[in-house]
DNA sequence: CGGTTAAATAACTACCTAGTTAAATATGCC
DNA sequence: GGCATATTTAACTAGGTAGTTATTTAACCG
């Protein structure tokens, strides 16, 4: 996988278990065992998911006796959201006659340019 | 990788080449060769990236003689942005004394509960 | 038809991921 | 110290990803 922060963030978000873990952490800091509880998955598997989230900077882990409380760190989510914002105009655009027309004109121009 | 749409979307976005391809497509529909041009990478590599983007529903490919024009499809980006929106309050929250205080109270309560 | 261009596929390598079970580590409690 | 609990690490398997070069397919053009 690529080494830039955004790539790490999106990669971390590309797994439903990890997204569910983040959703749980949105309710507040908690232990690994409690995070693991909803999943039919071994503890080591959860531990690995947490490591991925930690490497992506999406969580931090503290120490409270033998517990390792996990806490959400939202900054990478903000950065990801900002990246997506650049494309907002595309999904807000009504895909109406004008847009389709412009697209086809563009394709036609390229075609004509090649024919010269 | 997981099979749900959101996982596919985030996985597709977790590569800088693919994000750059989407950025180029935001300027308008274009051919594979033109998409490949900015990258020091073989055509088959680009072709594979396009396949990933297509599987994620982020692009569609048409046919214009021997060209395969690619076009951005923004719906999955919208869905990803909406997922991230759920966490907006976390990055907008000022991480001030109150928030920190609440967090520590929460940790303390769990500790006390265990001691009973 | 033959040559050229655009793009995809095949076959391969190297590495990463997501899961498993078994063992190790860390800490609190008596 | 020794047991119990929480969590991580080790070692392994199966499958996916990102890239390569060589080959193949598709379409236009003369």
Question: Can you tell me about this structure?
Answer:
2 copies of one chain form a homodimer. The first copy, chain A, is mainly alpha-helical. Chain A has a single domain (5-115), classed as Orthogonal Bundle (Arc Repressor Mutant, subunit A), CATH 1.10.10.10. Helix content of chain A is 62%, strand content 5%. A two-stranded antiparallel ribbon of chain A has the order 1-2. The longest helix of chain A is centred in the C-terminal third of the chain and has 19 residues, at 97-115. The radius of gyration of chain A is 22 Å and the shape is elongated. The mean pLDDT of chain A is 86. The interface between A and B is large, with 42 and 42 residues. The structure holds a DNA duplex (30 and 30 nucleotides).
């Amino acid at each position: 996988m690529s080494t830039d922060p955004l790539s790490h963030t999106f990669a971390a978000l590309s797994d439903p278990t990890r997204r569910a873990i983040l959703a749980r952490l949105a309710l507040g800091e908690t232990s690994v065992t409690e995070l693991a509880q909803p999943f039919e998955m071994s503890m080591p598997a959860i531990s690995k998911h947490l490591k991925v989230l930690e490497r992506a900077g999406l969580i931090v882990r503290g120490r409270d006796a033998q517990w390792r409380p996990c806490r959400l760190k939202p900054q990478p989510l903000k950065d990801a959201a900002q990246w997506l914002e650049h494309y907002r105009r595309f999904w807000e655009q009504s895909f109406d006659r004008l847009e389709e027309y412009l697209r086809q004109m563009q394709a036609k121009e390229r075609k004509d340019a090649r024919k010269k």
